[in-house]
Amino acid sequence: MDTRPSLPDHESALRDLGLYRPLFLTRSLVFPEDFPRSYNDAVMRFGRALNKIIRLDGAPEDAYLEFSRHVLKLRVRRLPEFIRSYVTDDLIKRHHLIPSATQRASCDPWILLGRALSAGDSKRGIRYRFEVSRDLNLAFQIMRWGYSVKAARASSPLEGYSQLEILMESLGQVDRLDDVTPISLHERGYPYRCRGVVLKETGEIFMTYGRREYLELEHEPCKFLNLRIGSARLPVLCGMRFKDPLACVAKMIADSQSDISPYEPWEAPDILGFRFMFRSKREMKQGGKYIRDRILDERTFKVSLGSRHGTVNSHSAAALLMLKGSINDRLGLLHLKGEIQCMLVRQHFDLIVSRTDINHELYHLRRYKDSVSGALAHWYPRSIYGLDWSSDEVGSKLEEGIRVLLPKPRP
Asked: Taking 60 as the threshold, does the pLDDT of residue 28 lie above it?
């Protein structure tokens, strides 16, 4: 008796893979005429479909193998690291959020689909079907993200801070672009708010609220520059980050529930992020306006100047002061979409170290566990795992777990 799944079943499974976007592998693309006659036939058809969608020129079996590698990396590393960053070990074990090592190591797309379709309708079978659909969908989006970003990079020889220097040249009023290692100074007691910043190489005090005994924490190097505006010279620290593909998918999910126009993960408006850190609110406003007028897309500009003026989004801390916007594409400055944020230097280090709502990991937790737009709620839904992300009890437990893992300044 032939126990192979029928075409409609596979079409249904593939439709499930398009969790937030139109079906990426349709029956007409993968199985246009009949059911694959063999495993090799399935691999070739699957690979040809991947080549067609991502516009690759290689052999179909190579595309299929690469897709399998993305599935493996997602199941073994990306998703486990993501969930462990925000969820405590006891909740992970109790709700089976990370499958067994043996199950995670299975990465052949065609075999996974076959197992998923024959998993049955028990609670375990339903969960397995969902996890296969989720993992294949995410792996495909990450694979396509990688090729899109690679193609964009190929159009420009610039990498990393070279792009920052291009931005600085476009501003036209910048001098002293130095590499520095900032050391943040923090209150000696909980919640370890930042009270100053010293530059390690020179011992220069960038900003401080008086001289007293502080705790210290050394950070990744960044750039120091002077922004000249008229007769004023504003000292600024500037950092850069590159958003990883899973974070881009999570952002796409969140933004799909807002008034932002739909986009694909590789089109995220902030794949490249530049943060300008100022000593005072006055300097931040002055420098932010200067940057806004010259290189930002006015349509994307947002302001958060404290709780009385609203926040940059509904999950941001009320105390966060920030000016942000996308770099204007029409200027042709970058090969990828980028965002600039202007904020107070003390709040930048509060995002990393402090145990208050302003902390960036706590912000991500609030965003990811949102019952409508959160990645945790989408990738680990209550209907499958039985974990109510919106409950106060779960939220408090997750926040407590994150605070324990945050970096702690030392004397």
From this structure: no
Q: Do 410 and 216 touch, CB atoms closer than 8 A?
A: yes
Distance of CA 362 to the CA centre of its chain: 14
pLDDT of res. 310:
52
* Helices and strands of the chain, counted as H and E runs: 17, 11
pLDDT score recorded for residue 12: 40
Closest Cα to residue 402, out of 351, 355, 346, 367?
355
- List, in order, residues 6 or more apart from 109 with CB less than 8 Å away: 46, 64, 67, 68, 71, 136
- Rounded to a whole number, what is the largest CA-CA distance in the chain? 85
The DSSP-derived string for 37-87 is SSHHHHHHHHHHHHHHHHT--S-HHHHHHHHHHHHHHIIIIIHHHHHHHHS
Read off the pLDDT band of 56 (50, 70, 90).
confident
- Segment 373-394, tens digit of pLDDT: 889 988 998 888 999 999 999 9
Kindly provide the b/e burial profile for residues 139-161, where b requires at least 16 CB atoms within 10 angstroms of the residue's own CB.
bbbbbbbeebbeeeeeeeeeeeb
Q: Using an 8 Å Cβ cutoff, are 370 and 364 in contact?
A: no
Sort 307 into a burial class: Cβ within 10 Å, 0-12 / 13-18 / 19+.
Answer: exposed
Q: Is residue 93 exposed (0-12), middle (13-18) or buried (19+ Cβ within 10 Å)?
A: exposed
pTM score of the predicted model: 0.85
Is residue 303 a contact partner of residue 181, using CB atoms and an 8 Å limit? no
Tokens 């593909």 identify what position? 245
**Confidence check: pLDDT of 286 > 50:** yes
Q: Measured in Å, how far apart are the chain's first and last C-alpha atoms?
A: 72
Beta bridge partners of 326: 339
pLDDT in tens, 317-360: 888 999 999 988 877 777 778 899 999 999 999 999 999 999 99
* 402 contacts 361 by C-beta, under 8 angstroms: yes
| Sheet-wide strand order for 182-186 | 205-208, 194-199, 182-186, 215-218
Residue indicated by tokens 């690679």: 150
**Beta strand pairing call for 272-278 and 232-242:** antiparallel
Sorted by sequence, the CB contacts under 8 Å of residue 106 that are 6+ apart come out as 75, 112, 115
